[in-house]
Amino acid sequence: MNRAWLRWVPAAAVPAVIAAGVLVGSIPARAGDPLPQKSPAEVLTLLGQHSTRSLSGTIEQSAELGLPELPAAGPTSGPVSAGGAASILEFLTGEHTARIFMDGPTKMRVQVMDRLAERDVIRRDSDVWFYNSKDNSAAHLALPAFASDLPLPVPEAPALPGDLPAPDLLSPVLPMPIPPGPPVLPTPEDLARKFLAVVDSSTAVTVGPDVDVAGRSAYSLVLAPRTQGTLVEKVAIAVDGETGMPLRVSVMARGQAKPAFEAGFTSLSLAVPDDSVFTFVAPPGATVKEVQVPPLPLQPGMPALPPVPGGITPGVVPDTGPEQPTAPEQLPAPDKIPGSDTSLRHRDAPRPTVTGKGWEAVIGFAAAPGGRGAAWTESLLKDPLLSQAAVVVPGGRLLSTALVNVLLTDDGRIFVGMVPAERLQAAAGAA
Amino acid sequence: MPNSASEAGSFPVTRSVPDASSGSDAKSGPGAPSSLSLLASELKTLFRRRRTAAMLVALAAIPVLIAVAVRFSSSVPPGKGPAFLDRISQNGLFLAVTAMLVSVPLFLPLTIGVVAGDTIAGEASLGTLRYLLVAPAGRVRLLLVKYAGALAFCLAAPVTVALAGAAIGASLFPVGPVTLLSGDVVQPPEAALRLVLIAAYLAVSLAGLSAIGLFLSTLTVVPVGAMAATVVLSVVSQVLDQLPQLEWLHPWLFTHYWFGFADVLRQPVLWDSFASNAVLQAGYVAAFGALAYGRFVTKDVLS
Q1: Are A83 and A379 in contact (CB under 8 A)?
Q2: Are B93 and B194 a contacting pair, CB within 8 Å?
Q3: What is the ipTM of this complex?
Q4: Is B174 on the interface with A (CB under 8 A)?
């Protein structure tokens, strides 16, 4: 009897050992040297001074915005093939992984790793390539000469998912050729920049307990809005204790335990990546498009240079043409961070109105002349995914997420803000 | 004899085989066949079976079917059908990738299920298990040898698909530099290396399923039951992996990384999924290996 019982010991022991191993592994490793104490201002300075320009790493991004979850695609239909709003929503739901390689200011490669597919942005000096393995299409962009001198602070501007309206959605509206360029995942750097831009008296900045990100100890810089009138509870930025580089940004929404949006390194090496990584030649058989950089006057408040890789994402390119009266790329998206410059991009579009300040700001877009705005809203809502996500409220329709609310009024105006829906309606009523 | 298997207690226990206690120490006994010769005879039996050959032929037929369909139809628009399907007509080596991709969800698990589910139950149903145990091989060694045989098939199956795919692809379509997922181009020799890596990845992927099959096979004397249960489990696991509500469970499903072999086709190769997959499969092998051990050494072998 006893012996038979003994024979089953391994069967019980193995799962126990595995469970124990998993438990031990999940305890955040707090060993190692604790970082020296720093005040919030010092961490901000550390963050501001960081000059990491060579790295290779993996970034993982996850979003819990409360949007309808796209069913995990089978092997044959990656999210990429999903047209319309699905491509926007793609980056606002679920998890995404990208590898990033950087060497100096002008060499960069981002690989967004989809299931059985990949989207690449490769920049070497003034040559920028986009590649999408799904349809084997590539696009090339020659940056204007001056651009190569400009520092490229990580795949900068476009990165917030909100900046990436679906090409399919926009193509009827836009005369511009839209490069098949992959939307680029937001790097922690981008996000940190966006949020730090709004640090003012309305934000409480503190330093939380040190965290461990991608095997590096980091300061946790916490930005908490002082007001209750916003959906954002706090933003935590993990600042590498050694280099000052932002390693992870988590945006917490009120009343939600998991971060509503998070992007951070899961592995990071500061060694200079192999130079061949930045070499790209359009593969045989690929359809190659040449994308022109539109002449673009720099404006104060604009991201350093929209045409740098980040900037060339579909949503941003069209924004140079004066022929776009509406602002289609001002799609409902959670990048409408108060003070974010995206709302100011359109020189010729009617200026958006801003009511409220700081975190409570509500940005209103007037209806396009000639009823195009309403038509656009209409066409937007034809998309099954968006219409499913939008609920009818008095005066229009509401796209509600954990971080951002978007109100599409019946007369074609759009109100966006990181505020509860009632404030949007109030703003719509007042305007 | 202190009876162990209480479940079978109602039977008049007539043990004609050495008890499990002779397990691992049996190899010291006189006349015990060496493990290698045991393994060799197991492999010989496995691969000489007409059923095994038929399954390998069926697996090799997958790339043939795809090749014929692609050859005699109009060009596939990019982005339609299984990944890489549109590349086949430009580069025959993609046929191997597509064929492996297509066989991952069902065909490979099906054949693995047949082989792994048959390991112990097949011998039991034929009444040969007791003779195997009469030879002082020991139950533990028998289990290990059986599992090694199943693993050999796990390797043979994807390699068959890859070889057949590459051969047919090369004969029907041009072969040239291969475009990886990252858009980089590698020459055919390196592409062949990547194909080997994919086959290895799949072999590792199937190790966990084989262990499950082995365990199920110790539970019954009806091999078909163990085979079917193994295949069904692989399908269930894949279905669970698709449900977003069970996200917490996904990294624990043995099918979770099955499609991760695409990471071999990136430049530079991403080894993360290879490593995660190996760790996960090792966990399944350990857990179900231990279960199979517990069951098999306490089992009354009556047939």
Answers
A1: no
A2: no
A3: 0.78
A4: no
